[in-house]
């Protein structure tokens, strides 16, 4: 897996947030933190999806 700089990862997150905003959707702080943890490799796919589902069920 290719390693990306923190700057590149944060730019990607900003672009994703802007794309969501165009559609009228916004990330909560909790959702953004979850995405950042996944991008930084702190969470695997299964754990990320599990936590994302927990957040979605709470909405």
What does this structure look like?
There is one protein chain. It contains 3 helices and no strands. The chain has 59 residues and is mostly helical. 69% of the residues lie in helices and 0% in strands. Helix 2 runs antiparallel to helix 3.
Largest sheet: none
**Mean pLDDT value:** 93
Low-confidence stretches: none
Q: Strand content of the residues, in percent? A: under 5%
Distance between the termini: 33 Å
H-E string: HHH
Structural class: mainly alpha
Looking at how many chains there are and whether they match, the oligomeric state comes to single chain
Q: Which characteristics define this entry?
A:
3 helices; 59 residues; mainly alpha
Summed up, what is this model?
The chain is mainly alpha-helical and 59 residues long. The chain is built from three helices and no strands.
What's the structural blueprint in terms of helices and strands?
Elements: H1 6-22, H2 29-39, H3 45-57
């Amino acid at each position: 897996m290719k390693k990306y700089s923190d700057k590149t990862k944060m730019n990607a997150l900003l672009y994703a947030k802007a794309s969501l905003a165009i559609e009228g959707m916004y990330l909560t702080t909790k959702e953004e933190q979850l995405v950042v943890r996944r991008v930084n490799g702190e969470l695997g796919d299964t754990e990320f999806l599990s936590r994302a589902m927990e957040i979605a069920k709470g909405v």
